Amino acid sequence: MTVKWLYYWQPNVGGTMSSQTLFDAFKRIEALHGSKTFRWQITASQFRPNQRDSPVPPVDCARELWGVSFSEVPDKYFFALRQDHMVVEADATMQAIMEKLQVYRNRLTILFEGFQYELGDFHIKAGRAVLAHTENLRGIVLEVDYKPLSSVEQSRRVVEDFMKVLNKGVVTGQFIPLDPNFPEYSLPDLYSWQHTSLQYVTLMAHVLSQQRT
Amino acid sequence: MECVVQGILEAKHVDALEVLLQGLCGGLRETIKVHEICLKTGPNLGAVASEVHLCCSLSQPEPVWSVRHVGGAMRGAGAEQLPALVRPVLEAGISNNSLRFMHALGYKLDYEMLRTGFSFQMHKTVPIAVTITIAVTAIHRLPKTHSVDEAQPVTPNLHMVQLTAPASPDNYSDVVGAISGLAEYLAPLVHLSKPGVPAGVVPTASTAAAALISRGGITKVL
């Protein structure tokens, strides 16, 4: 699996973010002769412990649980515990098991959705982040991967150089990389969907923290 | 959901049952070595108290983990009369950090065991296609937490025989029929009944076992 690097749109101070930002990103990719291939959707959810019979929350459990599903791998579901630095990969049936157990309840869900482009050896997913069941825009994202490489370290520089080209001449803001710190989560250099799910969880946490501030 | 019956078999008749199953099912014998961990929620966690089973299959070169949730058995007068238990079951493969994950979610170890043995699969069409798994296993207790290598048999002279088959609300009565039919073929060696309904060992199993072993198998197929 090739390494995917996630970037999010950071407007300049005093600037705003709108759907136009995403259309501009589409145009820039198409100007570089990127060809649109398919629609994609990623669902990221935050869960909280479901406490019973007591106003005091249970102590021996994670305060937050994160879950991610990808339209490209519908038979899998991924969980992340940021406090425990852990990513878990499971069959999609695990969602049904968690619903039966009723130990954690969904607090909110963000949908990442957009189009994928092919541009030479690069795949680019450009899309928006919206709160599920609303159209409230919460972010603009670019996921970039360089097809020939599946090593995290080797691909980092190539994608950084590509993003410099894509950000060139843009004055209203820029796409910023995430630093999810894979080794801290014991994720190896060989890239997998677990790495991708951690990036979307990190981005969702960032979006929610920005919303609070 | 799944349909299930189970029974006990004296260890000395396991070879005879294997011969019988080989004849009924063909040659696809699979080894079972599963570390099963039952986890329960801690206090105040979850809308209701819950338990879940983590199963680690150790029969392959690399351990394979799965999560299994078994719901309450089907109830009612109709269910009582069925010769097999029908219950909802959900199972999901999961990565090898699942035990740490479940502990982090607030689940505590309730008990654990090691199951070793073998299984066969039988495919029947009665009138729908049904795949029945016949598992013959010995249960081992672990003297220390997760000490799989020090496992000791709980009942050295007895093995558990379990027949299970996946089902749906639309077809479970056909599946129960298929399981019940197979249970009749195994009846000379093992009494199979719903879990929790003890049927004991078959007193004449020795005679049936001797006949099977001396013939080196059976030729009759379902």
UniProtKB/TrEMBL annotation, chain A:
It is found in: Nucleus. Pfam families: Med20. InterPro entries: Mediator_Med20 (IPR013921). One of its GO terms (biological process) is regulation of transcription by RNA polymerase II. It comes from the Eukaryota. One of its GO terms (molecular function) is transcription coactivator activity. One of its GO terms (cellular component) is mediator complex. The keyword Nucleus applies. The keyword Transcription applies. Keywords: Activator, Nucleus, Transcription, Transcription regulation. Component of the Mediator complex. PANTHER family: MEDIATOR OF RNA POLYMERASE II TRANSCRIPTION SUBUNIT 20, UBIQUITIN SPECIFIC PROTEASE HOMOLOG 49. Belongs to the Mediator complex subunit 20 family. Component of the Mediator complex, a coactivator involved in the regulated transcription of nearly all RNA polymerase II-dependent genes. Mediator functions as a bridge to convey information from gene-specific regulatory proteins to the basal RNA polymerase II transcription machinery. Mediator is recruited to promoters by direct interactions with regulatory proteins and serves as a scaffold for the assembly of a functional preinitiation complex with RNA polymerase II and the general transcription factors. This is Mediator of RNA polymerase II transcription subunit 20.
Automatic annotation (TrEMBL), chain B:
Its main location: nucleus. One of its GO terms (molecular function) is transcription coregulator activity. Transmembrane segments: none annotated. Signal peptide: none annotated. InterPro entries: Mediator_Med18. Keywords: Activator, Nucleus, Transcription, Transcription regulation. GO terms for biological process: regulation of transcription by RNA polymerase II; termination of RNA polymerase II transcription. GO terms for cellular component: core mediator complex; mediator complex. It is found in: Nucleus. Component of the Mediator complex, a coactivator involved in the regulated transcription of nearly all RNA polymerase II-dependent genes. Mediator functions as a bridge to convey information from gene-specific regulatory proteins to the basal RNA polymerase II transcription machinery. Mediator is recruited to promoters by direct interactions with regulatory proteins and serves as a scaffold for the assembly of a functional preinitiation complex with RNA polymerase II and the general transcription factors. Belongs to the Mediator complex subunit 18 family. Component of the Mediator complex. This is Mediator of RNA polymerase II transcription subunit 18. It comes from Ceratodon purpureus (Fire moss).
